[in-house]
Design brief:
The protein is of the alpha/beta class. Helices cover 45% and strands 14% of the residues.
Amino acid sequence: MRRRSTPQAWALRCRIILACASGASNKDVAAQLGSTPHAVGRWRKRFVEHRIAGLGDMPRSGGPRTVTDEQVAAVVTKTLESTPKNATHWSTRAMAKEMGLSQSTVSRIWRAFGLQPHRSETFKLSTDPYFVDKVHDVVGLYLDPPERALVFCVDEKSQIQALDRSQPVLPMMPGVPQRVTHDYVRAGTTTLFAALEVATGKVIGSLHRRHRAAEFKKFLAKLDKEVPTGLQVHLILDNYATHKTPDIKKWLLAHPRFHLHFTPTSASWLNLVERWFAELTQKKLKRGVHRSVQALERDIRSWLADWNEHPRPFVWTKTADEILDKVAAYCRRISDSDH
């Protein structure tokens, strides 16, 4: 009864038996321990018949099992190792018909084993031959940035469309969400060049109608003006062709405080500015209505200024070794797969 790890239900039963051993009646024990005379009588009887083992939970009555272990194993195996003839994945109805079971039984089996055939997730592994070195380089800048230097995550969000709905937007009302037409009218596009400062979360942005090397060079010049002199500048960016043109390389030679760190190919998730682009898309662009490119650019500049008033950095927590271990696990799963 005094053991801290004993479940409270068991402890109460032990208190009942000890109180009964002192000679108290069921009614007095119930009043003393906050139970009922019926419960006290039940545990007293169980203890007399089975001693300490009687204080545990006895098997409950119920109907016999109608689904055997072999049937459960067959459902799990068929779900994992086969597909139906006329579909890409099993449904509960199709599996129930195939196995001669009820749909609810198949659902319970799938829930018990965490099987969800209707779901599918995407992935892509980088084939960059310097993947390991680049991961260590980029993650090292996140977790241990150099002294007297600023680290920026740089990328461009191209082809941002100014979209106007073909009919007026119906506002939200109690019980009714906001409603917009599924079709829209395109008014043009713009491109946002953005540099996210890793330490503070502030963003330096620049809007251009095109995203060539010339526009990227102008953006680098803007960064050079806004970053205090005397500080080194480390830029994390992807392998887009405009980042590696001879004109850009010439500019970098003339500005030796700029250092470029390229993420591996097909690994945009390593660039934190992509997370900031997701914020912009979800909170401003996805449901925005703009009748012109100028209106779209005004909204983006306004949202960017509001963000920089109260910037929030995105904190990177995974080490390079943890990332590489996870990638290695994916590679093993692919090599073991028969598909």
